[in-house]
Amino acid sequence: MMKKEFIVLFLFSTLLLSGCWNQKEMTDMAFVMAIGIDEGTDDNRYDVTFQIVIPGNVSSGQDGGAKGLPILVFKAPGNTITEAAREVTKSVSRQLYYAHTNLLVINDVVAKEGVYNLLDGFDRDPEFRTTTQVLISRKTKAEDILTTLSNIDKLPVERITKLLKGTESMLGENIEVSIDDFISGIVSSGKEPVVSGFKIKGHSEKGSSASNLESTKPSASVVADGLAIFKDGKLSGWLDQDKARGAVWVMNKAKSTVINIDWKEKKDAITIIPIRTKTGVTATIKNGKPVIRVDIKEEGNLSEANTALDVMDPKTIENMEKKTAAKIKNQVENAIKAAQKQKSDIFGFGEKVHRADPKLWKRIEHQWDEEFAELQVEVKVDSYYRRSGVRTNPFWSDLDK
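Above: the chain's sequence. Below: its structure in token form.
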């Protein structure tokens, strides 16, 4: 009897269940891969670019080449991001879908005016991933970044994200920053965010044409270009090359880079490639003032030697390690000085002070910009040589004998 009652109850309950009320058909959706935000025209605050993928044109390369361009780009004005997203539906026949959005590009002009007003929508919308990467377009429109095509990676957003990963892991001048990271840096007490910059190299007006896909020397290409410093939610300056590398060292995000050192009066004669790095940052209080200590440990391999070099000699190795450490220390100190000049604590030194002495931090928190600008920072770098590759001395060293 109990079994029959259970079956009746089960059948009755299924009548009360509905289907997927919010089901969306793929053929009804436009997959937004990237969003770009530029300064607006007329009375609008923003011009927002939506990069939409054409799936059929991306996957058709296996049977003899793509049938057309891999993306479509639509632009709409608005005083808010939500308004622009609704406005663009006048041009797009499908519903915009943001679950696959991998990139948000903000124009440097917009970033200088402040990002508070444009981030809330991305943080609030449950469909939008806060792991989406953020970039600053430098001296170029965000729209141009998103419309420049590449013959290596079909999707521009894919090329840009790969470029960002590559320059972070191989050069150490850029870092990946998600929307979540960006917002956390803005609201954090004692830390300001940094964001990687990108620009167009070449003729930006030709980057969106099919000819850019068919040339061995593209007319335009997207390239990484420095780190953007923010202060109070606004772009305040840039760190480039060695200063950008120094900042990455301090933030313990250095994976690898190129370290050229002079040897016997020959400039950049030796190249060291770091294989392991670790940075520790601590705060102490001396005479009522915070002092920051940055300790860096680097292990590297000899990648190139364009001078006579005996790596079997312990004194040679010791000298090489000292020169490598000095080079890293110089980059780090210059990066810290540049950030102090901007009065922007991108390293999170304030957070370290807060942990070391909460009472002191409570007194200086509201004038931390000024405190950071005059902060005493001690940098110590230890470099260790590991190996020289498949040979010891340069191949041409025997020719001199």
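The chain has two domains: 25-239, 252-401.
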